[in-house]
Amino acid sequence: MIRKWWHDKVAYQIYPKSFYDSNGDGIGDLPGIISKLDYLKDLGIDIIWLSPCYRSPLADQGYDISDYYDIDPRFGTMEDMDRLIAEAKKRNMYILMDLVVNHCSDEHEWFQKACEDPDGEYGNFFYLRDKKEGELPTNWRSYFGGPVWEDLPGTNKQYLHVFHKKQPDLNWENPRLREEVYKNINWWLDKGLAGFRIDAIINIKKALPFKNYAPDREDGLTSMHNMLAEAKGIGEFLGEMRARTFQKYDAFSVGEVFNEKEDEIPDFIGDNGYFSSMFDFNETVFGSSQNGWYDAKPITPDDYKRCCFETQQKIGSTGFVSNIIENHDEPRGVSRYIPQGDCCPESKKMLAALNFMLRGLPFIYQGQELGMENVPFQSIEEIDDISTKDEYQVALDAGCTPEEALAAVSRLSRDNARTPMQWSAEENAGFTTGTPWLKPNPNYTAINAASQETDPDSVRSFYKKLIALRKNPEYKETIVYGTLEPVWEDRHNLMAYYRKGDKTLLVVGNYQRASQTITLDVPYKKILLNNYKDAPKSSQAIELQGYQVLILEM
Ligand code: TEU
Ligand code: CA
To answer: Which is the closest atom of ligand 1 to the Cα of 385?
Structure first.
């Protein structure tokens, strides 16, 4: 494997709208991010991925872009963006933006022009079909509910949108469109961006010609996965994109790739892969149901372990996967992966260590380092996210009571991750002096950065130690490049693995409230990290306390 500048780094995802508001309008912004760079530097962060802050109507919180060359005024100005890149550089930090090119906004100039002249040049930037009364071009269900077809205003045509109707899909089959995308990527890389996180990219290749698939719900529609499973040839687009953009800059790119097949991994993230890395979503998608969120099965500690190891085994040393516990589309990891009722500083630290020490590039989502938790939503009215609203309706349609539907969608709502970052115990979690666009989680008085920064035993301090360990010259080679070997795989509620490089490390977590004992073949040499104060009494027969995690040098 060719060594890359980003392999030994630690990345952090910022959701700009909810990170820090510098001017009291209730919306996080770029000057707010700049003012918190030192907080991130202190934590040990190198790479920052910003969720979209381009000009946008915010129908899907910025994942609907109306101008790829501009910053939305709610987030700041292009000068602020330039300043952010420069301030990051001063601190040896790197900025990634979100590349959202499966679709744009219906308020983008291209789409406006397509409406004016659907048979002209810009009509071919989208997927347009003639409208037929009482019949849709295909029966595909949009990710946010309902059919993927919508009338193209002022015409007798319909356009395709696999996400929201304000997110028309771009036609990647059209070389002119692809040129526009590459031009935009290079424009940003010229500005000094280090790279991109690449949104929903698997959707850019459609199976042509369009056709219906077997309906899988009573709405008569079919999941997008059925079409995507038949779409062949995405590699031609992705390879071209890489050659025309990222490769020339040695930029970092991480793909939001779902459902990759094992034999495609080298093409995606091998030495000459389309992307530098891709996220591991094996744990994230575990338990999901064709029927909707209401039908999703919760994940147990043993499932979690199995999912992590499956990915590690699948990737091996082919490439570098990006490991996450949560992101802006998911509930808080501590609420999801720690059994109900057991969320506490110890279990949060255990989860952090088990995930962070996996082979790959660790990404931390804002607030994860504080152990931020899911929100106790009282009513669907408190929810802003379009996906959650759709899933609530799906649950009701399936016969859930409103209480059941709310409970089901609260568990998985994207808004769990989108509440304001909890900076302090002050009003609105110290996020804004105005009215926050989304209510903070009421637990901010207990869980916040201000109290954790000075507390050596806080979750944040533990994350800081984990990051420092990854960078420690003595262990770095092993943690970054060492192999991963699971141990005691069949032990219930125990997750353990070796990392082997020029050193041998053992990472072991007791994923339950009760203690359990492990027996090492030889005594360990040194404890590198422990989420409990006291060292185990014996260095060979180790009694692990509830949710205790140890990183041992063997
Ligand atoms: O998500 C892509 C995605 O495939 C969805 O599964 C998403 O996880 C799901 O809708 C959650 O309910 C990306 C972005 O991360 C997401 O925020 C955007 O809404 C979506 O693309 C459209 O741009
Ligand atoms: Ca603001």
So the answer is: 12
